[in-house]
Amino acid sequence: MTTCAAAAPELTEAYRRYRPRLLRLALGLVDDPATAEDVVQDVFAGLHRRGDGLRDPDALPGYLRTATLNRARSVLRRRRTERAYVPPHVPDAGSAESMALTAGERRGVAAALHALPPRQRQVLFLRYYGDLSEAQIAETTGISRGSVKSAASRGLRSVSTMLA
């Protein structure tokens, strides 16, 4: 095997002669006939790409076995990596209808909040969107805790009436 053109008949003969044994070897390693066939095809394609062939034609069977084993190991490594991969968590998206309803509900809540007097709107916003306690709201707005409680109570009652 000295040139690609000269190697073609020898490669065809090697394929005919060694393919069944290499296929059995690959199948024993990868446990999938289609993948085993791909492994053997890749080995012969690699041999063909070499073009210059092997220096020692008697080394061909050993070369083919080793190449098949190495290619099968690569396939198994890739499989192991694919199976170990855990995709990042993506929250389930709702249907288009539920998303539209949710967006509509949000717009309704926003409109109801904007219709409230400023103090009630501020208290509800700080409580439910800012996640502040009554004491933190009182400190932030400069009003008493009692005023925070009554503003929140009146604001929630008004919002629930507007949304009903």
UniProtKB/TrEMBL annotation:
Residues 15-80 form the RNA polymerase sigma-70 region domain. InterPro entries: RNA_pol_sigma-70-like, RNA_pol_sigma-70_dom, RNA_pol_sigma-E_actinobac, RNA_pol_sigma70_r2, RNA_pol_sigma70_r4_t2, RNA_pol_sigma_r2, RNA_pol_sigma_r3/r4-like, WH-like_DNA-bd_sf. One of its GO terms (molecular function) is sigma factor activity. Signal peptide: none annotated. Transmembrane segments: none annotated. Residues 109-157 form the RNA polymerase sigma factor 70 region 4 type domain. One of its GO terms (biological process) is DNA-templated transcription initiation. Keywords: DNA-binding, Sigma factor, Transcription, Transcription regulation. It comes from the Bacteria. The keyword Cytoplasm does not apply. Coiled coil: none annotated. CDD domains: Sigma70_r4. NCBIfam families: SigE-fam_strep, sigma70-ECF. Belongs to the sigma-70 factor family. ECF subfamily. This is RNA polymerase sigma-70 factor (Sigma-E family). It comes from Pseudonocardia sediminis.
